[in-house]
Write a structure and sequence with these properties.
Order of helices and strands: EHEHHEEHHEHHHEEHE
CATH class of the largest domain: Alpha Beta
Strand order of the largest sheet: 2-3-1-4-5
Number of strands: 8
Strand content: 15-25%
Number of domains: 2
Largest sheet: 5 strands, parallel
CATH topology of the largest domain: Rossmann fold
Length: about 280
């Protein structure tokens, strides 16, 4: 099994590179749009964030959307993990590798190029003037940086967030595809028994979290969920009010009991008194 993510600035080369690697590895290419469609069953449309373009909107206007952001990320992550448990895929899009940081065998690629190369490429592809291309690229870079901070709290340009950084001007598409294919074949990026188990655990925990957020009875519950997919056990930790503590736990157990694969639910609650 191989999972590869490819991020970039404003280069359309990302899609081309994903296709080339896909042909070599005979695996599926998944885009942000694919994940958004798959996440509709988890209620991602309710957040209103899936339809927003980072180019058109600044997250500065959305600072008060904390709950909607969390809902969006939970839905998107669950759909992304749906793809992951089904097998190999290559993802290119909006920095979704930050939702798979706990999966050790994900190969994270950053595709980059000098500014002049990016400007020239954009001019050829879009017919923009040089001034328009420079302004457009500046806008993209600023907005992408703001969105990466808004959604994931990271600087997407930081090379430490990636395993391989490729300068597409020097390396070229064919060699880049060969480099990625070679890298992902190494043992460091192949799943083990333990990492495969970790993926299944993360998937079950994410399915459980999205189920809590879908239900009106538990939507506001702030809990942490760990899962053992092999035994079907969920470990739920959270704070609940002194008044209504039993109902809080019963609601959580009721909702989670309907998640496929769940057999046992262990709840560890901390009673807090400031709701009284």
């Amino acid at each position: 099994m191989s999972i590869i993510t490819i991020s970039r600035g404003s280069l359309s080369a990302t899609e081309m590179l994903a296709r080339k690697v896909s042909e070599k590895l005979n695996c599926r290419v998944v885009t942000r749009e694919d994940v958004l469609r798959a996440a509709e069953k988890y209620g991602i449309k309710e957040t209103g964030l899936g339809e927003l373009s980072f180019i058109e909107k600044s997250p500065k206007l959305l600072d008060k959307m904390g709950d909607r952001k969390r809902q969006y990320l939970v839905c998107f992550r669950t759909a992304l993990l749906d793809f992951a448990v089904k097998g190999d895929f290559i993802y290119h899009g909006h920095l979704a590798q930050f939702l798979m940081t706990k999966i050790p065998y994900v190969l994270r690629i950053l595709l980059t190029a000098p500014e002049e190369f990016r400007v020239s490429t954009l001019m050829k592809e879009s017919g923009k003037s040089r001034e328009e291309a420079v302004a457009y690229m500046k806008l993209i870079d600023e907005r992408r940086l703001k969105w990466s901070h808004f959604l994931y709290g990271v600087n997407w340009k930081d090379s430490s967030n990636y395993d391989v950084v490729i300068n597409i001007e020097r390396i070229g598409m064919t060699l880049a595809a060969e480099m990625i294919t070679d890298a992902v074949s190494r043992s460091e990026f192949q799943p083990t028994v333990e990492s495969s188990k970790m993926l299944r655990n993360l998937h079950l925990a994410s399915l459980s979290e999205v189920s809590l957020r879908q239900s009106p009875r538990t939507r506001g519950s702030e809990v942490e969920i760990d899962a053992d997919a092999e035994s079907g056990t969920l470990y739920v930790t959270g704070e609940c009010p002194r008044v209504g503590a039993r109902m809080w736990e019963d609601d959580i157990r009721s909702v989670l009991s309907h998640v496929e694969g769940v057999k046992t639910i262990e709840v560890k609650k901390s009673i807090v008194g400031y709701y009284e």
